[in-house]
Amino acid sequence: YGSDIAEMENIYDFEKVLQQSMLRTIKTLRESFKNHDIIQFFIIKNDYHNLKVIVKGSILGTEVNEYFSQLGEVSPEEIKKYAEGDTGAVIPDSLKKSYNKAMEIYETTRDPQQVDFVLDQALFEEMAKIVESTRAPFLKEYLTALSDLTNIKTMVRLRKIDGDVRTLDSALVTGGSLPKEFFKEKFSGSIQDLVEALDSANYYQVVDEGLTEWESTGSPSVFEKLIDNYMISLARRGLYKPFGSETVIGYLAARENELKLLRIIMVGKINGISSDMIRERLRDVYV
């Protein structure tokens, strides 16, 4: 992507440049690796990002094309066609079902947060199906950690805004090692109780340091950074394996992280943020 950035005519085009670079990576992996499910596992979140954008655009009656990601399995334009009533739109039944459910829940609750919950759950359900079909232990371990840490973050965030257990139940995603009952039991307890209950988890240090900092500062940013770093460290292990699913997972995670770092830098520069503050926001560089 270095040459792409060098040839960029307008700094505000950086997102398009980053997506073009990632598209080339995905294309190369598809051509050289037969198991496309592994690739889909990492890019399906972009389909659900587009679905969220389209649902919220439908709710607000606004144009949303500029917020689309081109890195998903499905053309965002096709998803939009379906949302506009085109029954001939070429999208998977899973996305149709997710869109319909999201719109239905909004009509019932008028709560955009519930839309996010529904689509996040649908995303993790699809990721869990991919893990089950591939039977790749490495991928299962990755999803388990991601689901657990996502649910921990969700639970703590809901506590901070005085949410209730009913809302928590609708917000938790599938695929983790911690059952819903665990989160319901810990919801009304102290953060220290939650941390101690996870003392045998591989990600204990992430939870201990991250939640302590969140309690101290009122900001989840350190916890989110530690989650990113932990997930990167999991993926990094794949690069030390002979070429196979672990290697592909490691490489895709590496490329995603590189683009995330570049995005942080570019947005920071555009907004006049100091170099020191940008450096603080950067995740671990993946090598």
Structural class: mainly alpha
* Share of helix, binned: over 70%
Shape: globular
- The top-level CATH class of the largest domain is Mainly Alpha
Unreliable stretches: none
Q: Under CATH, the topology of the largest domain is which?
A: V-type ATP synthase subunit C fold
- Helices and strands, in N-to-C order? HHHHHHHHHHHHHH
Tally of domains = 3
Q: How many beta strands in the DSSP annotation?
A: 0
The proportion of residues in beta strands is: under 5%
In DSSP terms, counting alpha (H) and pi (I) runs of 4 or more, how many helices? 14
Average pLDDT level: 90
Q: How widely separated are the two ends?
A: 16 Å
Kindly provide the radius of gyration, computed on alpha-carbon positions and rounded to a whole number of angstroms.
20 Å
Largest sheet: none
